[in-house]
Automatic annotation (TrEMBL):
Membrane-protein topology: Multi-pass membrane protein
Membrane-crossing segments per the record: 12-33, 81-101, 113-133, 139-160, 181-202, 250-268, 280-300, 306-326
Pfam families per the UniProt record, alphabetical: COX15-CtaA
Record organism: Bordetella genomosp. 13
Primary location recorded for the protein, binned into one broad class: membrane
Associated pathway: Porphyrin-containing compound metabolism
The keyword Transmembrane helix is annotated on this UniProt entry: yes
Keyword Glycosyltransferase: no
Protein name as it appears in the record: Heme A synthase
Amino acid sequence: MSHDRITLRYRKLVFLTWFLTLDLIMFGAFVRLTDSGLGCPDWPGCYGSITPLGAMGDIHEASQAMPFGPVTLSKAWIEMIHRYVGAALGMLIIAIVYMAWRHRARLGHSPALAIGTLVAVCVQGAFGAWTVTHRLMPAVVTAHLVGGLLVLGLMTWLAARERPHAALSAAAARWRPWMRGGLLLLLIQVTLGGWVSTNYAALACMDFPTCHGVWIPEMDFHGGFSVIRGLGELPSGEMISQHALTAIHWVHRNFAFVVFVYMGILASRLRAEPGLRGPATLLLALLLAQLVTGLTTIFFQWPLLIAVLHNGGAAGLALASVVILVRLGSAGGRPVEAA
């Protein structure tokens, strides 16, 4: 097979897998926001069956016992579709590793990044199983969310290396540490957002910009940010308090302004570089979209579509930031062209 055909096939495979990763993150948010995480309360099957069709009796019995509980036929299908797509993603990444290793000389890249992505998706699969076996323990679910964004970041890195872009000036290199700092802030904010979602604290403050009518409401930070505990519980086993949920929401809301200002100023500066104008403009647009969807979530009491879009916006911010960081790595060099 010719060099050009191998390169083209590899690129198509990488971009298909990248797209599926983004879709899986969005669907994962849908699973969580529809309370479908325990739609099949075992793993990897559904009551020991490959599909919910083989578990109809168990699902019917569980839904009859708890009509508004975590197990219904629709929730079982939502959960299992998420698992099927995750399995397909794993197989595609194995294919990427195979091609990256076998054709490493022709592709001109070390297979290390592809191998690291495969390791990350395996760990992510383990957290997916623990999400079920630990009964939606907030720390595990949040780690699963952050792990998904890590896999997306690695896939974006793989894809960004395959896209041509204009050469960057040598002066652009000065923005690398600033972009790394922005990515760190974004990671913290995404983790805080995951903590809000997994603790169902999105509606803990129903007004804006104040919370319960005051700027600094009564809060229980110790209870809210205790990591090792079950869903809806404090470490003592008592039900989590409204003050703890308020603390979770309030921290996420206020840290968002830090990220918004920092990333907004940085993206505005990066737009001066022709090779960064596209992803920097996307970053600005997504920051504004996150502000709008975040406020809409509060004012309209967490509508499902807006909540899913808010999760997708976080993924978009992560991928735009990774693209910028990858391109900054070539600052001062030649334009990256398609082979």
